[in-house]
Amino acid sequence: MIESTRPDLEACIELIEQLCACMRALAAHGAEHDDVHSSAQACRRAIAAAKPPFGLRFLSDSVLREREPLPLTLGAFRRSQIMARALYQQNTPELRFSETPSLEVIVKLAKLFVEATQGNHRSIVPRLPGITMHKLYQVDPTSNGHDETDVDRVLRAELYFTSTRVEALHRGALETGCWPWLEGQHTVAALERCLSLGVTATARALELAPPEWTAARRSVAMVSNVLTVLTRLRTSDVARRAAAHAMLAIAGYGLAQPSVSFATAAQRALEAVHRAPATSGDDEPVAPSPHRLRMTALLSACAGKGSSMALTRLLHAAFTLESKRMDPSGQRLSRIDLQAWLCGAIGREVDEAFGRAMLASLGAYPPGSHVMSDGRLGVVVGPGKAHDRPILLVGGALTAPDAPVSPASPLGMSPWAK
Amino acid sequence: MAAFGAQGELALKLRALGDELDDVVTGLRNRDALAIGSARKLVASWRAVGEPLLWYPTELRSAGKLVLAAELERACFVLPAYQAGLRALMPTEHMTGEDVLALGEQLLYLESGEIDGEAFFMWLWSGNPSGLTVLLGHPLSAMPGMVLEQPIPPDEIWQSHTAAAMEEWNQLAWNAAQALPASALEARFRAPALTLAARAAQSDLGLSSHEADALRDACDGGPDSVNAQLALLAERPELAALLPPAEAAALVRAAISARLKLPMLLQCIGMMSEAAAAAAIAAEPRLMQHAPRLCHELLAGKTIRSSLLMRALLSHSAAGARGLCRALGTGEMRELEGDLISIVLGTCVDLGHGAELLLPLWAKRDAPVNARALALQAIGRDGPLFNQALAATPLSIDDPPELQALAAALRGSLP
Hints:
The complex is a heterodimer. By secondary structure, chain A is of the alpha+beta class. Helices cover 54% and strands 10% of the residues of chain A. Chain A has 2 domains: 7-134, no CATH class; 148-323, no CATH class. Chain B has helices spanning 5-29, 34-49, 78-84, 97-112, 117-125, 154-179, 182-201, 209-220, 222-235, 237-242, 245-257, 262-271, 274-283, 291-300, 306-330, 338-350, 354-363, 369-379, 383-392, 401-413, and strands at 53-55, 59-62, 65-69, 86-91, 132-136, 147-148. In chain B, β1 (53-55) and β2 (59-62) form a beta hairpin. β6 (137-138) of chain A pairs antiparallel with β6 of chain B.
């Protein structure tokens, strides 16, 4: 276990340990016992060392101090779980310390925990000066049933962060001429995590974000598209990750300048990948893993060298589709226009099988598409009962249309067209 | 409470599996040579059970039963591996002791703090170990992103999404009208949108399950993928030289299963490190059908040592040595050095394979003379075998003088 070198985090772990000790002493001996007093004193010291104000957030399998995970040892983890169960009984998994509380308050808090672990949760939490307990708004990746808008908010932030990361990654790769393997892998892993929270939700968060379609955001869209198709096809992890990583590298070189062809972008990406050190070192531990071999071989195939690979056709299709988002005239296409273009390009500009897989991966009307429903303009948020009846947002409310919707291309149906 | 019958037996097997995993890590920690034995035992136990190992913060479970519980001084790798994102492990049909050892080594590094959770996660994410299927979840470092600072009522979110979408529609429609005439907009954007609507109405989208299966198989590997990887290794010897043994073995298995043409595979094996080449050779008995060519590539490679060649030829019940003798008998082995062949054939005799492998070669009168000479020279290391060989296939007047001379010399040197 890597030890923390952060005294504030260490103090929080100490607080958890001592609060549990206080609970144990309280349950065994009652409030007047010396052990209760000494552990409560230790709690006070730990709180002071942790420097209030701060909050401890008890998630299902971790504890955060504000937004930083505590590096818990096995013992501390077990004790944190006891406290987490007590806090979840109260439906208040966040414990905030605004100041160092008195001994009396700490004993009251420990008593509250003891009662909660015994199943006696209080509907009214007593007033604890210096300490407040709160609900926690979170998306638990290990369970379903979250509010869709919470998932959207988490994904929107994650995708924004990923786009920023991609921007820096691509800039670095262009400047050094060397592909940053580890950072590329971490980026793809982050996008995989987004998709694990919901494929449709990820597409929705990406399409409905604020309107600037930067090269980084388009790269994220390309990689997400590849991941979505391969997730739907249930391909192996190695194939999916290699394809996504290769797409990320191709996007970096393909979107850096206008009108770069797929093969040229792949060739540049391949050169950068070959320049990355092939040794296993501290800085860049990239000894040829199955991922590295597969990804590099795929890039090589995309560049038109060596053997052909089926995945090159998917990468080509995703690249071509995203390239269309910006029309040569400078006009940006909306999601429904892109989908309509794809529908007509299958078997011509894009591969037949992968084109159809892309077309169907998020439904005929993917999230972010503008459609008309019952005479009103709406935007698609997810699949519905049938291909032509997706779930919509119309007038700010979720709607499941009974009748088929029709596409509302802002470009093709502009009321201002002359 | 004790469980009886099949369930009780399964529970015992699973506990033994957990003990073996802990033994592997403990063995590696103590630099104990028995770790490899524990790893092989684990492979056998896991194959017998055939269930995935589910990874929880403080324990491993399988088939609803406890496999291994973390304690203060036992299985201390469980929590850090969970925090790094590990959620489940499933053996593949190709799992080997080396895969388990590689996993054990990483768990040990993680437990002792030599690597952090991110490095462990990335090692697994990159397809290691190749004989195990790994399920990863959200690592601890990703958890802060799952917390929202304050609640926002869903209605407000949907309203803001709608407002943004309407604004986008207006802006795009306005810009389009300024940039292009109505006829161009109609042809380029409205007509395709209506085609899409027609196909959606007819459900004329997507792939049949049969097509999806075929596409998945094509993406997952197949000959083209393996071929591309081999071509890459052949082109980039520095990558081939760094290939870890387990991955070398996996590549050989994939290439043989895909019935690829072997020259490139054999060339790649010749470029690998000794350990990787050894693992590659040991991975697939069918490779030994190509022993002569393999010998040639191993000799051409930079890292070849005769011990590796020997190991290769004598693995898989000496299938390689058998292939080599067959090739010598048919004259396919002209390119090889006689000295090395002598060493190999001599080792065959020393290890007791002389009667099976070399007597037939000696008896093959239509075999090249130098091959028969090499066989006889090797047979000469074992007096009784030598006598047996000459009794079964005596020298005749048709045999060339060099064989006669060799036989005489060997007979004279026998004790």
